From TrEMBL:
Organism ancestry: Bacteria, Pseudomonadati, Pseudomonadota, Alphaproteobacteria, Rhodospirillales
Keywords from the UniProt entry: ATP-binding, Cytoplasm, Helicase, Hydrolase, Nucleotide-binding
Short sequence motif Q motif: positions: 1-29
Organism: Candidatus Defluviicoccus seviourii
Gene (name only): rhlE
Protein's UniProt name: DEAD-box ATP-dependent RNA helicase RhpA
EC number(s) given by UniProt: 3.6.4.13
Amino acid sequence: MDFSDLQLSEPVLRAIADLGYTTPTPIQEQAIPFVLRGRDVLGCAQTGTGKTASFTLPMIDILAAGRAKARMPRSLILEPTRELAAQVAEAFDLYGKHCRLSKALLIGGESMADQIRVLDRGADVLIATPGRLLDVFERGYLLLNDVKILVIDEADRMLDMGFIPDVEKISTIVSRMRQTLLFSATMPPPIRRLADAFLTNPKEISVAPPATPAANVTQGLIVVHSTDGSGHGGLKEKREALRVLIKQEDVRTALIFCNRKREVGVVCRSLQRHGFDAAMLHGDMAQAARTEVLERFRRGDIRLLVCSDVAARGLDIEDLSHVFNFDVPTSPDDYIHRIGRTARAGRSGRALTIALPEDGKYVALIEKMIGNTIPRLSVEGLEAADLAAPSSRRRRQGKAKSEPKRPEAKRLEAKQTEAKRPEEKKPEARRPEEKRSEEQRSQPQPGKGVAPAKGEARRGTARPRPQREPEPPVTGMGDHVPAFMLLEIKLPKKA
Ligand code: AMP
């Protein structure tokens, strides 16, 4: 199939040709005709499949007719992170360069006044993170009743980040006379329920089995000892293993993922001390710093970017040769997303994970999900260790029950619990004083948004109590007969 078979307009086709795209990817081939026909679409697709173009290209054509009014965007795209929102905005610039469409970006960490000014001029496309969008809406600077197309992108990440109540709320505010497109890499039950609630007879498209790593990513696992004598539980050896790996491998550019923000800084500074050109990216950095570091990385000014999951989720970095997992992700979904940053658009890439023996249970979860064993590799000069079987480790340590759970493990557990929960959380407004800042929102909250956390009921996001049927007025004693009245009365025998 060719792009010209997809009924896209000439200016859009010209923009695609300028970019050198020759054939549509499977998601584009399947989604574009339905989006152009006005159908709702439920797309199960990962980043890297060409999913962004599958909704932006037809949207540009649909929006070509008509003009936006001040503060009344004609379409809305929800993204879980600022980086992804900025990336989609760039895609509109690229694909819409021969069309005259206006766009606005509403993301946290940047001047709200500037963003509102752009909205005031009228936007055909509004790309937003849910928190900032609701803030601006509640302040009265935005009307959503002219939105004709609503895109909920990366829905499963929204779930991880606790944004689903916000997404539900936005979906109820946006005009009912709209087309809705929902994309998610995986379809856990809460996302399915979201789709059932807000999509009408959607065309379901699935381009790759959920949670399957791209075939052209070569994976490897390096297990190092956790006792390094420094009292840092393997951190020193993991850093050493990382340095050796970077030298051993032919690294052009690499993302190095850590599980915690604190470690991002530690690993980055350690690499810099050893003469590597490394920088860091995590959710606690100011937005200007995040944008700048990403720009430098994209330009190739820095070769290694140490990052957290939230900051790097879905990033589309051209020709990224390697992904290193400095820590084994505690959620297998995160593993798939991390390694999916490399080997994009048909290229090949390598994804290498450094583990400690006690990471055995997390590795087992990942291998179960991908349905394969990750090949074990050894690192020059470092003694390879074995992964501990989850149960044997617990028995050996003898403290499994009292051991505090890692927050990520709790999050995973909460996620699994949510997957089993049959009920839907009702969209409800949060009180303004209880809102978290956009920055806090951008960090995964253990258990947040997946299962009601403690105190959730008080915060108003729990399900309302079911209304009782009005009962008929009771006459006499109603159905209830006091027990004593049913006792057999023994009358004294007549003499
Ligand atoms: P996405 O899944 O939207 O993040 O896209 C992944 C990458 O594939 C982006 O860098 C796009 O520029 C690129 N891409 C999207 N569609 C095509 C296509 N039809 N041919 C070649 N590259 C594409």
